[in-house]
Amino acid sequence: MTDHHHEHDHEHQHGSAGADDSSWGELLDLDAEVLHGYLSEVTSQLAQLTRNDPPRRILDLGSGTGTGTLALLQRFEGAESIAVDRSPDLLEHLRNKARTRGAEDRVRTVQADLDDAWPDFGPVDLVWASASVHHLTDPDRGLREIFERLRPGGLLALIEMAGFPRFLPDDVGRGRPGLEARCHAVQAQEHAERMPELGSDWGPRLSRAGFAIAAERPFAIDLRPPLPEPTGRYAQAFLRRMRSHVADRLSPDDLATLDHLIDSDGPDGVLRRGDLTVRAERTLWAARRP
Ligand SMILES: C[S@@+](CC[C@H](N)C(=O)[O-])C[C@H]1O[C@@H](n2cnc3c(N)ncnc32)[C@H](O)[C@@H]1O
After folding, report:
1. How confident is the model at residue 22 (pLDDT cuts 50, 70, 90)?
2. Which of the residue ranges 72-81, 172-181, 278-287 would you say has the lowest mean pLDDT?
3. What does the pLDDT average to over 31-45?
4. Source organism's superkingdom (predicted)?
5. Distance (Å) from CA 64 to ligand 1 centroid
6. Residue 232 beta carbon below 6 angstroms from any ligand 1 atom
């Protein structure tokens, strides 16, 4: 689950770069691959919380390429998942992945814009919403809709992020260390304007929607070298997308350094560096419909 670039109407209104779904899909898949350890901890906690009554019907909202759906189908062998997204390309990508993993009979995809009227999915046991609720124009309405769709006793797994992944050592920057921190600062400014719901405290909002919080768990992801091969591609895909959002607010030197870093052939590019880390923060709120 890596966020921050989507085709939300807000983006178009504010004139930021549109996201093409195939490169976004690649980034979401790399996120799942590189952060598989964290993902497994989350699904393990959900298995604990549902151990007396494992979920059979799962609803994955803003499913993207199916990171949540596929991890949950692996964790809960008797379950089926309805994956909902407004992007037909990402849903097609998800179906292809499900087929590759032999899970196609357990997944139904539904294309829907959750800012509009929600389809009737029938009652579900578990809702998974990872890095998706903050995209909604009215997230509190989204939480109430989720509440309505859960059966009594059903669980919502809401995952949101406090910040975006960081990959680079602090000394990177032409003549001026701290390039990545500067990029994140610019991006935070941009997000405050474009995605004000990002980084919200979801606990009180869940309570207001009627949920009982079963767990709130922050995950501090901190992967250190040597890291496996997809890490460089993940960093490259992430920094490329970040560039499209911060370029016009960076100094020419910083922009030039960033371009070297994301250049596939560049000797200093992230694909070749042995000193990358992955540091990210995500929080799981597990909340029950009483
Ligand atoms: C950051 S991605 C997260 C994808 C996936 N949940 C994950 O963790 O990898 C957010 C997803 O929400 C979807 N999305 C955003 N706004 C939406 C809306 N209004 N209706 C349906 N899907 C939406 C996007 O298309 C995207 O796939």
Report:
1. confident
2. 172-181
3. 97
4. Bacteria
5. 5
6. no
If one residue of 135, 136, 146, 194 were mutated to test the ligand 1 pocket, choosing by the most ligand atoms within 8 A of its CB, it would be: 135
Q: Which atom of ligand 1 sits closest to the CA of residue 128?
A: 6
Q: Compute, in angstroms, the gap from residue 91 CA to the centroid of ligand 1.
A: 10
Q: Among 5, 38, 85, 111, which residue has the most ligand 1 atoms within 8 Å of its CB, making it the best to mutate?
A: 85
Q: Please state, in angstroms and as integers, the Cα–Cα distance from residue 224 to each residue in 59, 100, 219, 255, following that order.
A: 34, 30, 16, 26
Domains of the chain, each with CATH number or no CATH: 9-167+197-224+278-288 (3.40.50.150)
Determine whether the shortest distance from the Cβ of 145 to ligand 1 is under 6 A. no
Q: How far apart are CA 238 and CA 261, in angstroms?
A: 11
Mean pLDDT within 81-88: 98
Q: Which residue carries 């799942």 as its tokens?
A: 32
Residue of 86, 91, 282 with the most ligand 1 atoms within 8 Å of its CB, for mutation? 86
In sign, the C-alpha dihedral spanning 184, 94, 233, 255 is negative
Q: Is the CB of 127 under 6 A from ligand 1?
A: no
Q: How many CB atoms lie within 10 A of CB 260?
A: 14
Overall pTM surpassing 0.70 (yes/no)? yes
Q: Which residue has the tokens 């379950």?
A: 79
Task: Answer whether 198 contacts ligand 1 (Cβ < 6 A).
Answer: no
3-state class (DSSP) for residue 66: coil
* DSSP H or E segment with residue 45: helix 36-49
pLDDT at 17 over 80: no
pLDDT at 15: 32
> How much is the pLDDT for 196?
81
- 20 C-alpha to ligand 1 centroid (Å): 13
Banded model confidence at residue 163, pLDDT cuts 50, 70, 90:
confident
